[in-house]
């Protein structure tokens, strides 16, 4: 099976997986940023934080957005430490972050044993303007490796800037990332390798992995979103299988 999907706490699920089981870690954890006070941080839902007023869609909330910065750094370090154990030597790790949590994310990455290699930018053309200031139209991808970069395993050149808006049509998750970006990012995983996402959400990383010929292990706490992710992965798997069958059949004769 090209993918496996697990519903539950990421630390618990990862603890049951064998050492060096994956070739790459790509994840989009809840950012836990933006709360100016403890009351604001603990009372606001993810929907309140991420969805503009007046938006008509009714995407489900998700948990995990009520940590302060220290707690978030500790939680992320624990999960990155466990994923470090699961990664093969030279494997890359990519972690999405907003500007507020970049330093905490980089600290957690290094505390977990990964070697910090840099940061990429995801530019969102459809981001909201900011009156009197600079437009907040970017999020970031903090990345590193387990030891040195294993360039010989996957001699690919990827950009450091990705530009695509969040999905609007058929959107499944409040913080869903565009497949155009995710399909480029999963190419950092060696061909036919396995990508791990311990905050799988609606499964965009997994869909991109399958579409790019990689295997996928996903972990998601929410029963609601694990169902959506499973449906999307099954669709992507069938589409990929159908395309492979066409490629094997070759051009149609007339």
UniProtKB/TrEMBL annotation:
Keywords of this entry: Methyltransferase, Transferase
Any single GO BP term: methylation
Pfam families: N6_N4_Mtase (PF01555)
MF (Gene Ontology): DNA binding; N-methyltransferase activity
All copies of domain DNA methylase N-4/N-6, residue ranges: 22-229
Highest rank taxon of the organism: Bacteria
EC number: 2.1.1.-
UniProt-listed Gene3D superfamilies: Vaccinia Virus protein VP39
InterPro entries assigned to the protein according to its UniProt record, in alphabetical order: DNA_methylase_N4/N6 (IPR002941), DNA_methylase_N6_adenine_CS (IPR002052), RM_Methyltransferase (IPR001091), SAM-dependent_MTases_sf (IPR029063)
Family, as annotated: Belongs to the N(4)/N(6)-methyltransferase family.
Name this protein carries in UniProt: Methyltransferase
Organism whose genome encodes this protein: Streptomyces sedi
Lineage: Bacteria, Bacillati, Actinomycetota, Actinomycetes, Kitasatosporales
């Amino acid at each position: 099976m090209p993918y496996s999907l697990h519903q539950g706490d990421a630390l618990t699920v990862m603890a049951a997986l064998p050492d060096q089981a994956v070739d790459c870690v790509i994840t989009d954890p809840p950012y836990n940023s933006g709360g100016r006070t403890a009351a604001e941080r603990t009372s606001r839902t993810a929907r309140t934080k991420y969805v503009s007023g007046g938006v008509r869609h009714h995407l489900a909330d998700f948990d995990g957005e009520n940590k302060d910065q220290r707690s978030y750094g500790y939680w992320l370090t624990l999960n990155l430490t466990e994923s470090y154990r699961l990664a093969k030597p030279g494997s890359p790790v990519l972690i999405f972050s907003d500007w507020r949590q970049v330093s905490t994310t980089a600290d957690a990455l290094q505390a977990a044993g990964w070697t910090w290699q840099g940061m990429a930018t995801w530019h969102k053309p459809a981001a909201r303007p900011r009156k009197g200031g600079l437009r907040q139209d970017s999020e970031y991808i903090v990345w590193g490796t387990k030891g040195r970069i294993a360039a010989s395993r996957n001699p690919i050149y990827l950009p450091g800037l990705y530009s695509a808006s969040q999905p609007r049509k058929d959107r499944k998750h409040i913080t869903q990332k565009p497949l155009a970006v995710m399909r480029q990012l999963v190419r950092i995983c060696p061909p036919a390798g396995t990508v791990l996402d311990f905050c799988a959400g609606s499964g965009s990383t997994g869909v991109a992995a399958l579409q790019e010929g990689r295997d996928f292990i996903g972990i998601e706490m929410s029963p609601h979103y694990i169902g959506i992710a499973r449906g999307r992965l099954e669709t992507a798997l069938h589409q990929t299988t159908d395309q492979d069958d066409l490629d094997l059949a070759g051009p149609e004769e007339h």
